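User: I'm curious whether this sequence folds into something compact or stays loose and floppy. Could you predict its structure so I can see for myself?
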Amino acid sequence: TRFAKYYTPVVTIGAVILAILPPLILGGGWADWIQRACIFLVISCPCALVISVPLGFFGGIGASSKIGILVKGSNYLEAVAEMTTIVFDKTGTLTKGEFKVSEVQPSADKNNTIGKEELLEIAAYGEGYSNHPIANSIREAYGKTLSMERVTDTEEIAGHGIHTFIDGREVYIGNAKLMDAQNIAYTENKTAGTVVYVACNNVFAGSIVISDTVKEGSKDAIRDMKQVGVKKTVMLTGDRQAAADAVAAELGIDEVHAKLLPQDKLSTLKKLRETYTSVMFVGDGINDAPVLAGADVGAAMGSGADAAIEAADVVFMTSNVEAIPQAISIGKKACTIAWQNVVFALVIKALVMILGLLGFANMWMAVFADSGVAMLCVLNSIRAMKL
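Assistant: Here's the prediction. I'll summarize afterward.
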C-alpha cells in the first residue's frame, strides 16, 4: 500500500508522457508511440505486487494457525517479525499460575498466640469470597469446609489485599504494601515466592508463602527468542522483587519490574516503548487487557481471560511461550518472501519497460511481465504456508 501510493501515479503519468511527448518532439508516429505507451502500461500493472505480497502474509497467517498461533492481521504478523523487545507478564504466562502453599510462618513475637493451623484458617476465611488463584491455593491448603457466616464486612483493597472481620476480629490479609498502609509492624519474609501477610486486630500474626512453578519450555523459549533477533526480554509482575528476580534468573530474563499494581504495568509499558521504540507484550489476565491494547503488538495466552484475548493482536492457543519464537520466525519468513516478490517483480518489469521504450518489446512480452510474473510470485508466496 505504501509503495502503490507513489508507483501508480508515476507509471500512469509516464505512459501519458510516452504517448504524447515523443510524437510532438520528433513529429508524427503517433500510432507507434501510443502502442508503446499501452505496452508500458501493461508492463507496469502491479498485479504481481497486489496479489503476491498479501498472499505471502496470508500464507504466514495460515502457517501460524496450523500450530495454534492466531494472528489477527497481516500488519501484526509483519510487526511481530520486526520486534526486538518482548515484555512478559509473569503469572500464567511464564509460570503455570498453579499456586500452592509452600510455607506457613507464624509471627515469632512472644506475645503471638496464633499457630500455623489457626493462621492458615484465618487466611482461608479471609480469602473465602475471592476467586484469585492465590486465594484458591490458601483455601485448598486449609482443606476444610468454610462456614462463611463467621466472616463479615469483607472489603477488597485493589493491589493490596483483603480487609475483613472474622469472629469479630479485624483482619488484614495481603502484601507488604497493605501492612505498610495500615502501619502494622511485620517481619519481612524473604522466601522466594508470593508472600501473604496476615494481621489480626492490627497485630502481625504471620505470613504464608505461595509458590508458582515455571512453565516447561519457558527457558528454552527465551533462548530461542534471542536466536531469532529478540534483543531484550522484560518481565512485569506484582510479585515481590525477590520472587521476580528468582524467576528471571531461572529463565534468563534481561530486565525485571516487580511490585507493580495493574495500573503501574501500563505506565511501565509506556516508558519501555519510549526506551525501546516498539515492544510486544505477552499476558493472559483481565488486568493485562489495557497493557495488551497499549503495546505495539499485544499477545495473549489462549487459556487466559476473554478480555485479554479480545484485546490482543496475536493469540497463542497452546498457552506455550515456545510459540513466540515460532511466530517471529514465521513472520520473518513471510516478510522475506514478500520482499523477494517485490524485488523480482520490479526488476523484470524494469527490464521489459526499457525494452518497450526502445521498441523491442511487444504486447506478448508485456503480458508476461504482468501476468507471468504475477503467477511466479504467487507460486513463491505459497512457500510461506510451509513451516
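Summary: The longest helix spans residues 323-357. The two ends are 27 Å apart (CA to CA).
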